[in-house]
């Protein structure tokens, strides 16, 4: 190996070691100062204290690792699991942001009994580079999207919310939604996080679900879940879409208009929305999460990816907390939805 490569490898190893040491120190502090009981939601399966504790560790011990040079097609953002920093056995390994990260977060917001979900941030607020989970690559890292070999940015300008997706979800292009009349877009479920802080690319945050927009993009259903970081200043006061309109008026409308018009600078027509453009409540969003999670389960059970999607080649038995994800999302999806049943679902021609 050339001398320069030796030096680069040594520097990378040292950086990882320092990061692990910092995490270990922080984790020891957290363990000394926390006697929290395991998360227990109404109607959800009861977790043992050990299971809940183990789940919490997953959230606390991820490291973001950048590979390749920024602003090139080789640039990738990976996430590492560091079990030793959490007091667990095992070696540091890469996580698939789509497959290995649980859908349901380990801890609910302390101010609310509402369960939270793991949000994978792809595009930080106040930026415009179009990063996305590379669902067709091994370990599904985050990459900057390209078109005809050119790195893509939003020509409309910076996005004003943190944008990303929920892991272990999939909008199935083989299934036509009865709600919209269009098939899925072949991607994980999109999330718009409206909190105050900027979340970096590859960061995983627990969020509260507040509502969902049914966008139609190129004759495909492209749900946009509206959520907020569980630790945000507004999190304790926001539980549904009506709360957003009451406390942060105009936020949902701005999100809708951003997505309606963001492709116009590329010469494309405005996007449309089902349900007369209404943002549906949190209970409806939970049903969408459950449906897209069920689609994901079907995908990985097939043992092969649709088109060129990457799925776990050895099955899904090794995916941590998958049973918990399925059980909790199913329970949450059974809550009644309070919205105007007379509202037309499909987009008018």
TrEMBL record:
The chain crosses the membrane at residues 6-24. It comes from the Eukaryota. Residues 27-52 are annotated as: Disordered. Keywords: Hydrolase, Magnesium, Membrane, Metal-binding, Transmembrane, Transmembrane helix. CDD domains: pyrophosphatase. Coiled coil: none annotated. SUPFAM superfamilies: Inorganic pyrophosphatase. Its EC number is 3.6.1.1. It holds the Pfam family Pyrophosphatase. Its cofactor is Mg(2+). Belongs to the PPase family. This is inorganic diphosphatase. It comes from Aureococcus anophagefferens (Harmful bloom alga).
């Amino acid at each position: 190996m050339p001398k320069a490569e030796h030096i680069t490898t040594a520097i990378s190893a040292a950086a990882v070691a320092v990061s692990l040491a910092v995490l270990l120190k922080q984790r020891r502090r957290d363990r000394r100062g926390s006697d929290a009981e395991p998360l227990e939601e109404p109607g959800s399966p009861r977790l043992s204290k050990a299971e809940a504790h183990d789940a919490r560790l997953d959230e606390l011990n991820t490291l973001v690792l950048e590979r390749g040079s920024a602003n090139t097609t080789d640039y990738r953002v990976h996430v590492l699991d560091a079990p030793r920093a959490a007091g667990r056995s095992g070696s540091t390994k890469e996580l698939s942001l789509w497959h290995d990260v649980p859908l349901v977060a380990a801890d609910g917001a302390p101010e609310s009994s509402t369960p939270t979900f793991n949000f994978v941030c792809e595009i930080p607020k106040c930026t415009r580079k179009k990063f996305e989970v590379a669902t067709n690559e091994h370990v599904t890292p985050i990459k900057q999207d390209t078109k005809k070999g050119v790195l893509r940015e939003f020509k409309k300008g910076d996005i004003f919310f943190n944008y990303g997706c929920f892991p272990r979800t999939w909008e199935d292009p083989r299934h036509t939604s009865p709600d919209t009349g269009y098939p899925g877009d072949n991607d994980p479920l999109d999330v718009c996080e409206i909190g105050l802080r900027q979340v970096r690319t590859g960061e995983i945050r627990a969020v509260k679900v507040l509502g969902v927009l049914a966008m139609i993009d190129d004759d495909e259903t492209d749900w946009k879940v509206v959520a907020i970081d569980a630790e945000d200043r507004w999190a304790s006061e926001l539980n549904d879409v009506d709360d957003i309109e009451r406390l942060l008026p105009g936020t949902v409308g701005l999100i809708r208009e951003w997505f309606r018009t963001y492709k116009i600078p590329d010469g494309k027509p405005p996007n449309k929305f089902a349900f007369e453009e209404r943002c549906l409540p949190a209970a409806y969003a939970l049903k969408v999460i459950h449906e897209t999670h069920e689609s994901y389960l079907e995908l990985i059970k097939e043992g092969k990816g649709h088109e060129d999607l990457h799925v776990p080649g050895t099955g899904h038995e090794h995916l941590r907390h998958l049973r918990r994800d399925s059980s909790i999302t199913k329970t949450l999806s059974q809550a009644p939805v309070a919205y105007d049943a007379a509202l037309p679902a499909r987009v008018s021609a």
